[in-house]
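Lay summary. Proteins are chains of building blocks that fold into shapes, and those shapes determine what they do. In this project we predict the shape from the chain. Here is one chain we studied, written as its sequence of building blocks.
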Amino acid sequence: MRVPFFHPGPPDGGDHAALPGGPCASARLLLGGVLWFCLCLGLCLWLVSREGGAVLVDGDGQPVLATGDWLRHRDRLDDLMRQTLPRVMPGCRLLTMPGFSEQEARHYRVEGDGAPLRLALALQERLCQEVLRTGPDGGRLLADDVPLPRLRWTDDGVLEAVVDGRTCLVLHFPGWEAMLATLSRPMPEPALVLVMDDMGQKLEPAEQLASLPFPVALALWPHAPARRPVQQVARDMGMDVLLHMPMEAMPRKNGSAPDPGPGALETDMDAYAMEHALDRALAQVPTALGFNNHMGSGFTGRRDACRVLAGLAYGRGLFVLDSVTRGNSQLETSMVRQGIVTASRHVFLDDPQGTDKVLAALDKAARLARRQGIAIAIGHPHDSTLRALERWENREGVAVVPLRRYVWHLAQLRAGQAGRPE
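And here is the predicted shape, written in a compact code that computers can read:
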């Protein structure tokens, strides 16, 4: 016999209270879910914001710095920049830009005479040495799987320091924006860089070079009479400047010693005397990106002297161009070992002189650039050289680029950043 299913009803005769749970249980379940969500959210926020937080990962498994870590790296980069600026741009002022909270990137204006690219190079030198990996207590600031900070230039000519994809330091250089904006673009290939040595004796050659349809960097003698107006022309016209540093030359065949000029670096100098000479020269050409050697066949052949100079140049953000006035020069090699951005001259434009010979040398430099990707040619402000530059047709069609673009390209290569996507 089938037993009838008995379903006892509530006292009022209804049957809804017999359903499992009922509205009270649903409310309790909802409240518990909300409390659990709040607990999880609070725990996540604590993990992200706590000082010395762990390295988190994003949806792709890539490391993401916790907020506390990011702020610490920002402050460390800020300290590093403040330590570096007086050595690299001693005549400049650092002004804080208002309107940003303590949880955002630090924004500054750097005002005064100097070479902004040198500050970027000096910071890059420090970053390449992984200074940020060691904290004040000797502990690790960055985990091994978190990238070191990197530097980049924006299309507005602003320098940004980025940690884990987040901008933490922003430097503005009023008056330099147009020149610095070119650094945000990748280096073209083939490319040719032109440098004019022995500048600063007169203003007119600088004005002639400024009127050319392609850029030429000016290498100024530190004690030349027109060095200051030439630097002003260079700044107004977006031209790069180098210090044309006098260095000891080899004796001539007749035994006489060529005079490289006042303030020259000599092989018998100790480190103190060499540093004093370099400091005095740089003070006369504060907008210089770096230096190349005037004469110097005696100095650049001495490994010991070049190593001392490389040690003195480190930390100043200097680009060093070896003019290669002799075979087996030790200048570039010593700078590379010290971690300094450096390059060597490939072609002399006016040795021998003559307009047709300079035109032929320009074509040679362009062909070399096409063959190897980049070439650096050095000339001198002779009338024949200036005429040749005005007449040159660049039949090879290579890009003549400002020196600063090549320098920054080299710095990125050294840091392993060239071509890296943002």
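What the prediction tells us: The domain at 63-134+147-178 is CATH 3.30.460 (Beta Polymerase; domain 2).
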